[in-house]
Amino acid sequence: MNHTGPLSGVRVVDLTAMVMGPYCTQIMADMGADVIKVEPPAGDNTRYISVGPEPGMAGVFVNVNRGKRSVVLDLRGPEGAAALREIVRTSDVFVHSMRGRAVNALGFGYADVAAINPSIVYTNCYGYGRRGPDADLTAYDDTIQAECGLPSAQQALTGETGYAATILADKVAGLTALYATMMALFHRERTGEGQEVEVAMFETMAAFMLVEHANGAMFDPPLGPAGYPRALAPNRKPYRTKDGHVSALVYNDKQWTAFVGAVRPAWADERFATLEQRARQIDTVYALLEKTFLERTTGEWLELLRSLDIPAAPVRTLDELFDNPHLNEAGFFETVETPNGPVRFPGAPAWFSRTPGRVAGPAPRLGGHTGEVLDELGLGPA
Predict the structure, then answer these.
(1) Where do the DSSP E strands lie in 305-368?
(2) Which residues contact 330 (CB under 8 A, 6 or more apart)?
(3) Which of 24, 148, 262, 296 suits a disulfide with 300, CB 3.0-4.6 Å?
C-alpha cells in the first residue's frame, strides 16, 4: 500500500461492514491512514452483493474498501480477541458498526478499548443513537430514509412515495462519522486525550433533511409547516427541450433579468421581478419556465445560459461520468492495478497542495493481510 496524504502515520482499526462505516474509513485510507479491516471468517456481507471479478470482490465492496488491509479474526474466540487487543494497542482510531450490546459482549466496548489504549479515538457507527428508545433497532439505508422524511418529501416533489436513487443515508452518515472522528483526532493532537464518538444514521439524516426543511417549523410559535417550498415544488425537475432535457436554475435577480432580457418570454412581468416574489410562487415560475424551455434544443439552451452565467447542465447518465471531459482532465479517476486487472476508481474529490491523498491500493481479498499484520505485531496466526 502507498500511504501518502494528511493522515499518513495514523492507524485505524476498522470493524465496520456494509457502507456507512467502510465509506468513512475508505476516505481515511485515501488520505494516507493505515486502515486494518477486521473481518469475521465469513467476511463483510458487502463482498457478495453485486457484480465483481471474483467471488467476494463485488464492485460496491471494492470501491469502499480500497487501500485497506484485511485481517480475519474470530473475535468470539480467545486467540482472535487477543490479536485484536494487540492491534488496538498500536492504533489511533477504532471504528465499529455493531450495535452497542454486541460490541460490548465481545469485550470491545469503549471502556475495554480505552483500558488498552487510553488515547484512542473510538467511533461508534449506529443506526439509532444510544440515548433514545430506538437504540437497539436494526437499521439500513432504506429504513433510515423513511424515518427522516425523505420518501415523504419525494412524494411532494414527484407524486410518488419513493427513496432517493442512491444509498444516501449510508453515505451522509459515513461522511459525518469521518468528520466527527477527525475532530476528535484534532482534539487529541492538542491535548493528548482520546475519547468516544457516536454517530447515528437517524440523527444524522434528521439533521441533514432539516437543514432547509426545518424552515418555519423551527420557530415558536411555528410560522408554517416543515418543508422548503422550492425543493418540494412539483414542477422542480429538469426541463424538457426540443431534443432532450436540460437542468437550469434561473435563481437570483441578476440571472432572472439576464434570462428575461435574452429570451423575452411573454409571461414575464412585474409579478416575478424579484427573488422574494418568485420564491412565494416558485411552482408557478417553474411551470412557466417549463413551457419556455420546449422552444429550443438542449445545446441551444446550454450555449445561451452559460453565456449569461446562469447555472445549466446536461442531464447525464451514470455511465457518462466515466467519459466526462472535466473529470478526466482534472485527473479525477485513478487506475489501480489489482490481482484481477486494472480498476478505474473514482478518486479523492478533495485536493491538498502539500499532502494530497490518493487511492492507496486495491481492495483486499478476505484475510489477505492477516499474516502480514500479525507478523508486524510479533504474533502467530490467529
Answers:
(1) 312-314, 333-338, 341-346
(2) none
(3) 296
| Residue after which a domain boundary falls, among 314, 345, 368 | 314
178 and 248 assigned to the same domain: no
SS3 122: strand
CB 169 within 8 A of CB 205: yes
Work out whether strand 34-39 and strand 69-72 pair parallel, antiparallel, or are unpaired: parallel
Q: Give, to the nearest 10 degrees, the angle between helix 298-307 and helix 253-263.
A: 130
Residue 285 and residue 144 share a domain: no
* Domains of the chain: total: 2
| Nearest-5° Cα angle at 84, 11 to 38 | 70
The DSSP 8-state label assigned to residue 230 in this structure reads H
Q: Which three cell numbers stand for residue 351?
A: 485536493
- Contact residues for 350 (Cβ-Cβ < 8 A; gap 6+): 357
What is this structure's pTM?
A: 0.96
Closest CA to 334 of 326, 318, 322: 322
Domain containing residue 184: CATH number: 3.40.50.10540
Strand ranges in 76-231 using DSSP code E only, listed in sequence order: 93-96, 121-126, 195-200
Question: What CATH number corresponds to the domain at position 282?
Answer: 3.30.1540.10
From residue 271, alpha-carbon distances to 53, 231, 277, 290, 291 in Å are 58, 21, 7, 17, 18
DSSP assignment string, 187-204 = HHHHH---EEEEEEHHHH
Q: Torsion-angle region of residue 180: left (phi > 0), alpha (psi -120 to 50) or beta?
A: alpha
pLDDT in tens, 199-217: 999 999 999 999 999 999 9
Q: Give domain status of residue 337, yes or no.
A: yes
Answer yes or no: is pLDDT of 380 > 90: no
Last residue of a domain, one of 260, 292, 314: 314
Which pLDDT belongs to residue 335? 98
User: Per residue in 150-202, pLDDT tens?
Assistant: 999 999 999 999 999 999 999 999 999 999 999 999 999 999 999 999 999 99
Domain that holds residue 22: 11-208+328-376
pLDDT score, position 4 = 87
Asked whether residue 5 is assigned to any structural domain, the reply reads: no
The verdict on residue 150 lying in a domain is: yes
Q: Of 347 and 381, which is predicted with more confidence?
A: 347
Residue 280 has pLDDT above 50, yes or no: yes
Q: Mark whether 118 and 36 lie in a shared domain.
A: yes
Task: Name 34's bridge partners.
Answer: 11
